[in-house]
Structure formats: structure tokens, C-alpha cells
């Protein structure tokens, strides 16, 4: 695994940065505490959704790789059958 420097930013730092940035654009109407909790909740939900999407992407890549491997084996066997090759050497 890669060595991560001790002062490298974390995902928590990124979330705090996003919350702070959005708080700067707050237009009022609600208390600062309410706005901060609402933004933190939204960021947390988006972070969870991101992890779900990453898991789905990994699943799709892995299953498609398996499908491609199976299809390539099937094509190889079909070509060997068409060419009269049994697949055994020697």
C-alpha cells in the first residue's frame, strides 16, 4: 500500500471544507446552527451515496470482466471446434 503522509487531508477535512463553503453562501432565514446541521446531513448522505455508487461500479466491472472471460473462452472453444482443433497439445 502507498504510504500516506501524516498531514494528508482526509475525507473528514473535505466534508468540513464543503460545509464551511456552503455556510458562506447561506442567505439567512434559518439559524446558523440549523443550516449547519442541514448541510452536514446533506454532505453525509452524498458521501454514503458515493460509496454505494463506487461499490456498484466495482460490481459491474468485476461481473463484466467475468462475462468477458466466459465469452472469450466460448469464442476460443467455438473457433477450435470450427478449425478441428481439440485444444489438446501433442
Description:
The structure is a single chain. This protein has one domain. 73% of the residues lie in helices and 0% in strands. The protein has helices spanning 11-24, 32-83. The protein starts with 10 loop residues before the first helix and ends in a 7-residue tail after the last helix. The model has no long low-confidence stretch (mean pLDDT 78).
Fold topology:
Layout: H1 11-24, H2 32-83
Could you give a short account of the major beta sheet?
none
Low-confidence stretches: none
Radius of gyration: 26 Å
Distance separating the two termini: 44 Å
The average pLDDT score comes to: 78
Question: How many independent structural domains?
Answer: 1
Which strand-content bin applies to the residues? under 5%
- Overall shape: it is elongated
Summarize this structure as a short list of keywords or feature phrases.
90 residues; mainly alpha; elongated
Give a brief description:
The chain is mainly α and 90 residues long. The protein has helices spanning 11-24, 32-83.
